[in-house]
Amino acid sequence: MRLLLLGFALWLGVSTSAQALEDIPHDVVAELNHKLPVEYPGVRSLVIQRHGKLILEYYRNGLNAATLHDARFATASVVSTLVGIAIHQGKIKSTAQPLSDFLPSANDPAADRRVRAITVGQILTLTAGFDPSVKQVGRWAFPVDFALQRALVSQPGAAFSFNPGTAHLAARILASATKQRLTDFARKNLFTPLGIDRFLWRIDGPGGSELGYTGLELTTRDMSKIG
């Protein structure tokens, strides 16, 4: 099976005691190094760390440890982590807080009346109920008003659907709550503390905002730091 992975990092845990488990056997590491380019040519990179030690590092031809990889929809997981930090800092009360507290256009008459009560948690878990078939405007953009005025195809909180437009709303909630660009908030509160100093984050257009559902680029080692 061809793996459609642009970058992959596996974090196996950090030792919390002096009695650490044995390292991964060398023959397993050797087998991975052999199989990856032959059986899984779609894999761009693989990093395995255990107990804070680098166990395996693989890069496809032409790539290396400094290469930035598009995290694609894993970008949404990073946004969710940042929302958790904002909650810890008191900038967001809880995941039960309604999105209308941060995005006033949720109260627009053009939006379904149920939208204003959708919670931060329902946005993060992709259970808001928005129609997943509605695509972005142009190549990347999901303007907030457009995203909020999509039809609801299920009751908020009732069902999961893979939905880039909903994931993007999490980024806009975070920007509103922190009154900062995502890159600035992420750099200060997540990336710098983890020792991540190189990253890119695609915006939705000239002078626009960072995307919440794709577009974050990190090295594979730095992806493993986030987990």
From TrEMBL:
Q: Which organism is it from?
A: Ottowia thiooxydans
Chain ranges of the Beta-lactamase-related domain: 45-207
Q: Which PANTHER family match?
A: BETA-LACTAMASE-RELATED (PTHR43283), BETA-LACTAMASE-RELATED DOMAIN-CONTAINING PROTEIN (PTHR43283:SF7)
Pfam families to which the protein is assigned, alphabetical: Beta-lactamase (PF00144)
Instruction: Alphabetically list the UniProt keywords.
Output: Signal
Q: Which top-rank group of organisms is this from?
A: Bacteria
Using the record, list the residue span of the signal peptide; answer none if the entry has no such feature: 1-20
Q: Which InterPro entries does this UniProt record tie to the protein?
A: Beta-lactam-related (IPR001466), Beta-lactam/transpept-like (IPR012338), Diverse_Enzym_Activities (IPR050789)
Protein name in UniProt: CubicO group peptidase (Beta-lactamase class C family)
